[in-house]
Write a structure and sequence with these properties.
This protein is mostly helical. The protein contains 14 helices and no strands. Helix 4 packs across helix 10, helix 5 crosses helix 7 and helix 8 runs antiparallel to helix 9.
């Protein structure tokens, strides 16, 4: 009994240490965003700003087109999330329900593809987009984000589909429902938490992505928020710390808000609808 309590206490301590590790950069970012210039250069920094100010936020908006960049990021992230989910859901259903050699090979390829570095795929993607005349365009960037998010989205949704009892689909088939009707009316509602989680993954990965946007978008008015944040760093590598922290803080808010809004859908039981019925 004492050993079990000690093990549980150790788990809680490890969890607390992990939470502190995750929260420290964000809390320090918030503190830096509200500090005036004289406090940023202090030899004895403090957690709480002594004289909090919004000057860093005003300077950030004056120096860079943050709203325009945020709109580009939002368009790319939402577009990639919606398209990835629309493609991945029926594909995951087929891969989960028809466990053929081809389906197993496709699943293995999905897992292996996640190990590919960005540099390995950027040249082929660049050539394809060049032939389609989609270089330096948000629609082209959305295509790249869909391609990059689709393997992991498939891998996630296959697991959710396999957790749906086949008895529900068999009962729908007895009632005369076809495959498409079964997928839309029976399976898809039960997959709602999985679809939401997958869309959240695609959205956050696209919102925070930097490398593809840096390579594919050259016109300043089409650049996304992560790329614009680099403009606060000078040619000599000296960062304008206050405005950079303020802009970075604003850039993290959409991901946090989206997660806070839909977290109940993610943590809810996937088969709650089936139990209620």
């Amino acid at each position: 009994m004492r050993t079990r309590k000690s093990a549980r206490a150790g788990q809680y301590l490890a969890l607390l240490a992990y939470l502190v590790f995750l929260a420290f950069p964000f809390l320090w970012l918030i503190s830096t965003a509200f500090k005036p210039a004289r406090e940023l250069g202090s030899l004895h920094p403090t957690w709480i700003p002594k004289d909090p100010t919004l000057a860093n936020f005003r300077q950030a908006f004056d120096e860079q087109p943050l709203l325009e960049a945020a709109l580009n990021s939002l368009t790319a992230a939402v577009g990639a999330a919606v398209i990835a989910v629309l493609i991945a859901t029926p594909m995951a259903y087929v891969m989960a329900r028809h466990r053929t050699r081809l389906a197993r090979a496709a699943t293995g390829w999905v897992v292996v593809s996640q190990a590919f570095p960005f540099v390995l795929v950027i040249i082929p993607l660049f050539l394809v987009l060049k032939n389609l005349r989609l270089i330096n365009s948000v629609p082209g960037l959305i295509m790249v984000y869909v391609v990059w998010a689709l393997p992991f989205a498939l891998w996630m949704l296959v697991g959710y589909v396999r957790a749906v009892p086949t008895e529900l689909e068999e009962a729908a088939a007895v009632d005369g429902a076809g495959r498409l009707r079964t997928l839309v009316s029976i399976t898809a509602p039960l997959l709602a938490p999985g679809i939401v989680a997958t869309a959240l993954f695609a959205f956050i990965s696209a919102w925070n992505e930097f490398f593809f946007a840096l390579v594919l978008l050259k016109t300043p008015e089409k650049q996304t928020l992560p790329v614009v944040l680099t403009h606060f760093i000078g040619a000599e590598g000296v960062a304008d710390l206050g405005p950079l922290a303020a802009a970075a803080f604003l850039a993290t808010l959409p991901s946090l808000v989206v997660f806070a809004v839909i977290q109940k859908r993610i943590t809810g039981g996937m088969l709650a609808g089936a139990v209620k019925s």
